[in-house]
Write a structure and sequence with these properties.
By secondary structure, the protein is of the alpha/beta class. Helices cover 46% and strands 14% of the residues. The chain binds pseudouridine-5'-monophosphate and manganese (II) ion (MN). The site of pseudouridine-5'-monophosphate has 19 residues, from helix 2, helix 8, helix 12 and helix 13.
Length: 317
């Protein structure tokens, strides 16, 4: 095992080695751009059968931008970075696919389980494989009612210790956004607004909070990545916060009304732990008549396209 926790794992050591797809391995060897994609959104964040279509569409978006997609998941106790078509289908369709955060990786690998990876597990595995850019929908963060539940997504602490650029539409709006931004600051995670002075609101173009730094091109993001690397120091993530276009966002009035109902239902039903986020996302989808799903998908597509452009700019630099 390498001494440096962020150094790429040797790709062929025993049962816990990462399995890189041929396409991903070749691209890394030739220093061509690769984009990591998370799989929890596929297995637990989107309804079937739309989720499989979306999983394939996201990979196609990366390819169209001349980068290689690397969807990350654990199958039968092996951690995959880059999936074959049948493996992607299994992640989308198999009801036995669990939700795996970073802390779940060791038990899942040791016990031969299968699971989709959250932001924390995906960022960890992608960085270990040597990937620099990762796209998702919205990060996890500090939940509303944290003082009661202490529910803060493991995404935040893992990103504080992992050198990877994460393109997202901010953090999920079901969360306490100001508290999450404060945690990101405390943890030393860099945040760039992409083409905006406001932190995006996942389903909404703006959360109403401001960002300290705004970038406007993939080249500017790549320049920040290079300087961070030259500066050295402990690895931390760089969050590129990319808003959903205003004409594709969820109506903010509908958002606030439905979210209040969702949070209420979550509390009343006593839902806790890993089930909270999927419950809230599904509630919103149902009670907005599918409108939140369309906004979520528009955000994810935009993030995947931008991540590919950033990976291309970073590989060219
Ligand atoms: N983005 C989406 N949909 C999702 C997620 C992100 O558009 O379902 C997932 C990510 O995998 C993220 C997880 O890491 O939700 C957060 O879950 P939790 O709050 O339990 O940490
Ligand atoms: Mn949680």
């Amino acid at each position: 095992m390498p001494q440096n926790p962020s150094a790429p794992l040797s790709r062929e050591t025993g049962r816990t080695a990462l399995v890189l797809s041929g396409e991903v391995r070749e691209a890394l060897d030739e220093r061509r751009p690769v984009v990591a994609l998370e799989s929890t959104i596929i297995a637990h964040g989107l309804p079937r059968p739309r989720n499989l279509q979306v999983a394939r569409e996201l990979e196609d978006l990366v390819r169209k931008a001349e980068a290689v997609p690397a969807t990350v998941a654990v199958l039968d106790g092996r951690a995959h970075v880059g999936l074959r078509s049948d493996q992607l289908q299994r992640v989308a369709e198999d009801p036995g696919v669990r939700k795996l955060g970073h802390r779940d990786l060791a038990p899942a690998l040791a016990l031969g389980a299968s699971g989709a990876t959250t932001v924390s597990a995906t960022a960890f595995l992608a960085a270990r494989a040597g990937l620099g850019v990762f796209a998702t929908g919205g990060l996890g963060g500090v939940h509303r009612g944290w003082t009661r539940t202490q529910d803060e997504s493991a995404d935040l602490r893992l990103l504080a210790r992992t050198g990877i650029t994460v393109v997202c539409a901010g953090v999920k709006s079901i969360l306490d956004v100001p508290a999450t931004l404060q945690r990101l600051e405390t943890l030393g995670v860099g945040v760039l607004g992409y083409g905006t002075e406001h932190f995006p609101g996942f389903y909404l173009s703006s959360s109403g909070e401001r960002v300290d730094w705004t970038v406007r091109t993939p080249e500017e993001v790549a320049a920040v990545m290079r300087v961070r690397e030259r500066l050295g120091g402990p690895p931390t993530a760089l969050v590129v916060a990319n808003p959903v276009p205003e004409d594709e966002q969820l109506d903010p009035v509908v958002h606030d009304r439905v979210l209040a109902g969702a949070l209420d239902a979550c509390r009343k039903r006593g839902i806790t732990g890993q089930a909270v986020t999927p419950f809230l996302l599904e509630f919103l989808m149902r009670d907005t008549g599918g409108a939140s799903l369309e906004a979520n998908l528009a955000a994810v597509r935009g993030n995947v396209r931008l991540a590919a452009r950033i990976a291309v700019a970073a590989a060219a630099g």
